[in-house]
Write a structure and sequence with these properties.
The protein has 314 residues and is of the alpha+beta class. It folds into three domains: 2-69, RNA-binding S4 domain (Structural Genomics Hypothetical 15.5 Kd Protein In mrcA-pckA Intergenic Region, Chain A, Roll), CATH 3.10.290; 82-162, Pseudouridine synthase (2-Layer Sandwich), CATH 3.30.2350; 169-313, Pseudouridine synthase, CATH 3.30.2350.10. It is built from eight helices and 17 strands. The protein has helices at 20-27, 33-42, 82-90, 120-127, 154-165, 241-248, 262-269, 302-313; strands at residues 2-3, 7-10, 46-47, 63-66, 70-71, 92-95, 99-104, 135-136, 145-151, 170-178, 186-189, 192-196, 202-206, 215-223, 227-234, 278-286, 293-297. Strands 6, 7, 8, 9, 10, 11, 14, 15, 16 and 17 form a ten-stranded mixed sheet that branches. The chain is globular, with a radius of gyration of 20 Å.
């Protein structure tokens, strides 16, 4: 272990536009992810002498105070298994000189940390070392599959984050919810509050008093005997938003071990559902170069298609 002293880092052109937590994870290599968030919450990290939240986007010239921490000795970057490497490279849905859209598989985290040696971003950096500025534009839960956007240039990242904040993205998901859905389209507008446990686990709850605004539109796709296939379109991008909104209206997402219904999950497990039934099926965004709309779709994984075929036949 190596102990560092207080560091004062100035944000340059290469770092500008990153979320503060992502910046810290890059400069504090070897520090557990949970500890990085702990020092952020405690106010030990300062930006321009003031507190800053994890989601703050650092700007050119910002002065970031990084407190003393114990860091693990640098270790070699884990190699990506050849089978996974081949699979990831075939999952690229769209790519040009500024962006890359990947059909992320379920079960693979978007980044390493908390006992995970590497995720999508580390794997792609290893497989494509020429992409020195490759960064995640947004995130998907580990068990969620589908469209994941990455930027290949810092300038593109800044523009894409600005478009995200301006709600210029369109994100649609396919999800299988428990219970019989009444009516057709439904808009759920319930504020959400995120709590992070000491372990680093995130728990989100509906909180009318101190939660952040969150809205999801649900459209009916197909009814089954005991569940319903829905398309969810995000108006906001809160953590676990679709999962918590479905739970709050009595239609928990199937395969969801955190917010779902254990009995319903067990019934669908017998039918072959071994994962969260949540798939990012469509992503549309303004291209960072010229603002033309790029629309990318990811097909529903075969495992989930097979389940729907069985449910239709029963």
């Amino acid at each position: 272990m190596v102990e560092s002293g207080v560091r004062y880092l100035e944000i340059g052109e290469a770092e500008a536009g990153q979320r503060l937590d992502n910046f810290l994870l890059r400069v504090m290599k070897g520090v557990p992810r949970s500890h990085v968030y702990k020092i952020l919450r405690s106010g030990e990290v300062r930006v321009n002498k003031g507190r800053a939240k994890a989601q703050y986007h650092v700007t050119l010239g910002d002065q970031v105070r990084v407190p003393p921490v114990r860091q693990a000795d640098p270790s070699p970057t884990p190699k990506v298994a050849p089978k996974l490497a081949d699979d990831l490279l075939t999952r690229i849905l769209y790519e040009d000189d500024r962006v890359l859209v990947l059909d992320k598989p379920s079960g693979l985290a978007v980044h390493g940390g908390s006992g995970i040696a590497w995720g999508v971003i580390e794997a792609l950096r290893s497989l494509r070392p020429e992409l020195r500025e490759l960064e995640l534009v947004h995130r998907l839960d580990r068990e969620t599959s589908g469209c994941l956007l990455l930027s290949k240039r810092r300038s593109a990242l800044r523009q894409l984050h600005a478009d995200l904040r301006d709600s210029a993205f369109q994100k649609r998901y396919l999800c299988l919810a428990w219970g019989k859905w009444s009516g057709g389209e439904r808009r759920v507008d319930l504020p959400l509050r995120k709590n992070t446990l000491r372990s680093g686990e995130r728990i989100v709850r509906v909180d009318q008093e101190s939660g952040k605004s969150a809205a999801t539109r649900f459209a009916l796709m197909q009814r089954f005997a005991h569940c319903t296939l829905l398309e969810a379109e995000l108006e906001t991008g809160r953590t676990h938003q679709i999962r918590v909104h479905l739970q709050s209206i009595g239609h928990p997402l199937l395969g969801d071990e955190k917010y779902g219904d254990a009995s319903a999950n067990a019934q669908l497990r017998e039918r072959g559902l071994r994962r969260l039934f949540l798939h990012a099926s469509l992503l549309a965004f303004p291209h960072p170069r010229d603002q033309r709309i790029i629309r990318v779709e990811a097909p529903l994984p075969e495992q989930l298609q097979a389940l729907l075929r069985e449910l239709s036949a029963s």
